[in-house]
Amino acid sequence: VKVYMTQGTRGVLEFIGQTDVVNEECNPSFKKTFLIDFIFERRQSIKFEVVEVLGSNSSEVIGVATTTLGELVTTIDGFSKLEIHGEDDTVVGFLLVTLMKRAANRDMFRFKWRGQDLLDVGKMFAKSSPFFRVQRASASDGWLLAYESEVITETLNPNWRGFEVRSARLCKADENYPLRIEVLSYSTGGLHQLIGTLNFTMHDILRGGKRSFQLSHPTRRNAGSLLLQEFVCHQRLQFLDFIRQGMQINLSIAIDFTASNGDFNNPNSLHAFYSNGFRNDYQRAIEEVGEILLNYDSDKQVPLFGFGARVCFPGFRSEGTSHCFPLTGDEDNVEVNGLEGIKKTYASARKYIEQDGPTYFAPIFRRFSKIAAANKSQNAYNVLLILTDGELHDIDDCKTLIVDSAELPI
Known about the structure:
Low-confidence stretches: none
Distance between the termini: 39 Å
Mean pLDDT: 90
Shape: elongated
Largest sheet: 5 strands, mixed
Radius of gyration: 30 Å
Strand content: 25-35%
């Protein structure tokens, strides 16, 4: 199913995504969900285009269902049954849509399940190839897919991979919400054979401590059991959670002074300064990004570097082109104070700089990584802001340095 919705104020339908493909099934249950913003004062039209995939590059439209987000919001329990209309406007089926407000609960559940002595519904010379589906109850007395495991071939004692799922997605953050696990034996034709089902709630696991579950089958007495080998409940922390726990952001800035920016005295230069108060692109970027990040930096001390130029400061000069130099002109004191310090140092350093090239980032990365490594014991996250106009000439070195720095808080 391809989903289109009007975005902005133009009222034009735009593609926002599509579901997963379910093979050979007239009553498919799609795993893909969509997160969209509801704007009360705006009409937000939605079109669902139901498509049959014929091959890797071909498909055929089965029909279209249309509605508005406002209509979906006002339905009981967020459940809507939409008519799918074909080419001649005849109803060719129905699309069941469930709309949920995103829950504020950020609990994450991690499960790892194992099957034990499962019912063998395989063919004559092959055992069952089990997989399972975790489902939650829907408003229409049906079940909605929340997770589907991998298939483990020809075994009655499968040990599936662990997986994580948000509490809001699994059970609407309600530990008493009805859940079901359906264990099936995989068939390439899509007609999977039922091994067994179990009904439970997260209360059984969280409060009751239950870890062993007997499967039931409509016609067979013993369908085996599922064992919950691992279960962890934790919260997915967000940016503000870290900030509230005292994490700092340490900002470093590197500015491109290669000749491709244009001569300082040329009014078309990206480094041009104007008497009428107009800011060049570098000044705007420094202010607009720096102002936000410095809110979370307690000491407001910012290492400030330049690259791609020859420099001749009173106390520091380079032999040839430097691809990492302190804009303070002092190797022992590379930091400036706050946003005003950044802007003043950037402006005053230009008279000591002769633009050159080419554009290399690796020396800046190495210097920044040393700063981050020195601060590793602090409760801090390090952000490097690189302001540049040009084409990078050492991309492979940069990739290697980024990989090598993966353990650093940068």
